[in-house]
């Protein structure tokens, strides 16, 4: 078992993963606060520095890069100054940005946090969640038609901010099925019907319940939820269950529960992105779904023990496997 998992990890290097979804830019404005504005009863932040991170679907790409894979990012950015910063952040991590289409009808999705003396004071969002228009949709579909054939695995990371339309979703799925490429979806419940006939969906517990129409959040209900999604959408299902780990449902009725190791949790943000990235690379490396899920569970466990959206490395996963 351990030898098998270690061998899979050895193969992560340079695997090609196409990630399509809603890209965001996280901006942090860090400063000092020492006075109240004379203009209004608000604090004045004296800015010390600004930092950026590519987030949303791009965080899946960040995780793939950190695990030594090659990520090709497909999505949109606005015709604005945030776009240049976003592309720079992605390129810094070695992520291919040719699949990012400029959509002049929308701003680059951006979340700006203003932090004064290590306290978040304000968040400012730029976003327009409407589905992309036909022109942009066509450009994205054309990119998929050109590039899917060169990929090992395709990931749809849907944050329901407009990129994953029915047409784009079904085109990606159709191409993957035709070319025999695994396709993994981190879903949003409201787009449930877009995801039939994929290889795997990775909803968390709440998303899975909503998608299956079963409100019950109990341990027993997970089985019914997983089985129902598997049948209705004709796909394997990995329900991520926070500190309870994950449950994998496969065609033929196999159900595998994978528990987490107890650990101190620092940040849950982005654990789902780590899961998808690790599964994609494991599948690209020839792993079974079960082995891929075990590796992803270990990777996500390491991730939650870190601060913020920090990524996980292959060496960290190897170390955990050796200690299993
Ligand atoms: N408290 C925890 N202890 C150990 N591992 C955890 C914990 N919380 C989450 N994980 C790991 O992270 C995985 C994904 O977590 P979760 O089910 O919360 O995903 P999610 O809600 O999609 O996350 P995200 O907010 O990133 O979208 C879990 O399956 C597990 O492997
Ligand atoms: Mg999630």
Within CATH, the superfamily carries the name Ribokinase
Number of strands: 13
Number of alpha- plus pi-helical segments: 10
What is the makeup of the main sheet?
A: 9 strands, mixed
Structural class: alpha/beta
What portion of residues is helical?
A: 25-40%
* CATH topology type: UDP-N-acetylmuramoyl-L-alanine:D-glutamate ligase
Give the rounded overall mean pLDDT: 96
The termini sit apart by 10 Å
Quick structural summary:
With 324 residues, the protein is an alpha/beta fold.
Would you give an account of this structure?
With 324 residues, this protein is of the alpha/beta class. It has a single domain (2-24, 55-108, 128-322), classed as Ribokinase (UDP-N-acetylmuramoyl-L-alanine:D-glutamate ligase), CATH 3.40.1190. 37% of the residues lie in helices and 28% in strands. It has helices at 2-10, 57-66, 81-92, 134-147, 166-179, 205-212, 219-233, 271-284, 289-304, 314-322; strands spanning 16-21, 23-36, 43-56, 70-78, 96-103, 110-116, 119-126, 153-157, 183-186, 200-201, 236-240, 246-249, 255-258. The strands form 2 sheets. Strands 5-4-1-8-9-10-11-12-13 form a 9-stranded mixed beta sheet, with helices on both faces. It has a 4-stranded mixed beta sheet with strand order 3-2-6-7. Helix 2 crosses helix 8. The chain starts with a helix and ends with a helix. The protein binds adenosine-5'-triphosphate and magnesium ion. Residues 186, 204, 272 line the site of magnesium ion.
């Amino acid at each position: 078992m351990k030898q098998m998992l270690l061998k899979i990890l050895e193969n992560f290097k340079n695997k090609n993963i196409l990630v399509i979804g809603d890209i965001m830019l996280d901006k942090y404005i860090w400063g000092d606060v020492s006075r109240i504005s004379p203009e209004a009863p608000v604090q004045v932040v004296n800015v010390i520095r600004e930092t950026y991170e590519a987030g949303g679907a791009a965080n899946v790409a960040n995780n793939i890069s950190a695990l030594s894979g090659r990520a090709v990012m497909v999505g949109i950015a606005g015709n604005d100054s945030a776009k240049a910063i976003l592309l720079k952040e992605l390129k810094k991590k070695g992520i291919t940005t040719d699949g990012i289409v400029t959509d002049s009808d929308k701003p680059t999705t951006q979340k700006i946090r203003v932090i004064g003396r290590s306290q978040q004071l304000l968040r400012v969002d730029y976003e327009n969640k409407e589905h992309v228009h036909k022109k942009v949709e066509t450009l994205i579909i054309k990119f998929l038609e050109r590039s899917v054939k060169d990929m090992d695995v395709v990931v749809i990371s849907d944050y329901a901010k407009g990129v994953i339309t029915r047409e784009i979703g079904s085109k990606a799925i159709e191409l993957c099925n035709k070319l025999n490429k695994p396709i993994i979806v981190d879903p949003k419940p409201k787009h449930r019907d877009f995801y039939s006939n994929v290889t795997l969906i990775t909803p968390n517990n709440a998303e899975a319940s909503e998608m299956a129409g079963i409100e019950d959040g109990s341990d027993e209900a997970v089985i019914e939820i997983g089985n129902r999604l598997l049948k209705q959408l004709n796909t394997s299902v990995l329900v991520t269950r926070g500190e309870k780990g994950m449950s994998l449902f496969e065609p033929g009725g196999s159900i595998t529960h994978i528990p987490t190791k107890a650990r101190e949790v620092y940040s849950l943000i982005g654990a789902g992105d780590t899961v998808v990235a690790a599964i994609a690379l494991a599948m690209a490396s020839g792993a079974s779904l079960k082995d891929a899920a075990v590796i992803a569970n270990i990777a996500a466990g390491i991730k939650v023990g870190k601060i913020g959206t920090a990524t996980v490395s292959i060496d960290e996963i190897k170390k955990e496997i050796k200690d299993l």
